[in-house]
Amino acid sequence: MAITDWPEAERPRERLLKEGARGLSNAELLAIFLRTGVRGKSAVDLGRDIMKHFGSLQALFSANLGDFGKLGGIGAAKFVQIRAILELAKRLLEEEMKAGVVLASSRAVREYLLLDLRTQEHESFVVLFLDMKGTLIESRELFRGTLSKADIYPREVVKMALGKNAASVIFAHNHPSGTAVPSPADHMLTQTLKEVLDVVDIRVLDHFIVAGADIFSFADHGLI
């Protein structure tokens, strides 16, 4: 049965307007984004199938197009809709960081980096540039590598930071096929970047490593 044939009080859109978003299940919220189902299934049925298949929102938002292909009747169009939700959430957090003071241990920074890096299949090195007030100027991916290596050039990091008149920076990169534990090379890189930025009076607030749903903070472990 199509959702339009349901009693109005049971339809996800109408319930959201009346009860608020918190009253809806994950499957019902997905249904609102998906808008339509597939042959023989309503959008809510499809949302339930998706949640059952992936088991959690974390797994869902980490999925790639190939993962979605394992669900019958769900192709690129539905995958794109799900990815759009993720991108909107990331942009919301970026706006939040630009609107207020960013601390290395803040919720917004961690959630933003998890959304940005956890689904990457390649290694990515990101820098958050902050002004004198600790407000985000820009988040920029400076380097992209393979699954096992990303070449970071300190000179380019310094050049970019000076060009943006940054007072401090936060580094982040991901371990696509590993754990959120810094390698000896990660420690060496962090120290090198800190030393070259100290010369131009730019503080390094933290260096995060993201692996799946896990995130490691150098600052929290006394390594900055």
Q: Any descriptors?
A:
5 strands; 16% strand; DNA polymerase, domain 1; alpha+beta; 224 residues; 45% helix; Cytidine Deaminase, domain 2
Walk me through what this model shows:
The structure is a single chain. The protein has 224 residues and is α+β, with helices and mostly antiparallel strands. The protein folds into 2 domains: 85 residues, DNA polymerase, domain 1, CATH 1.10.150; 118 residues, 3-Layer(aba) Sandwich (Cytidine Deaminase, domain 2). The chain contains 9 helices and 5 strands. Strands 2-1-3-4-5 form a 5-stranded mixed beta sheet, sandwiched between helices. Strand 3, helix 9 and strand 4 form a beta-alpha-beta unit. Helix 2 crosses helix 3. The longest helix is centred in the middle third of the chain and has 24 residues. The mean pLDDT is 84.
Question: What is the topological layout?
Answer:
Elements lengths: L11 H8 L6 H9 L8 H12 L2 H6 L2 H4 L7 H24 L7 H11 L6 E7 L5 E9 L9 H10 L4 E7 L9 H16 L3 E9 L2 E4 L7
Parallel strand pairs: 3-4
Antiparallel strand pairs: 1-2, 1-3, 4-5
Order of helices and strands: HHHHHHHEEHEHEE
Q: What structural class results from the helix and strand content? A: alpha+beta
Number of helices: 9
Question: Ranges with pLDDT <50 over ≥5 residues?
Answer: none
Q: Class of the largest domain, according to the CATH hierarchy?
A: Alpha Beta
Give the oligomeric state. single chain
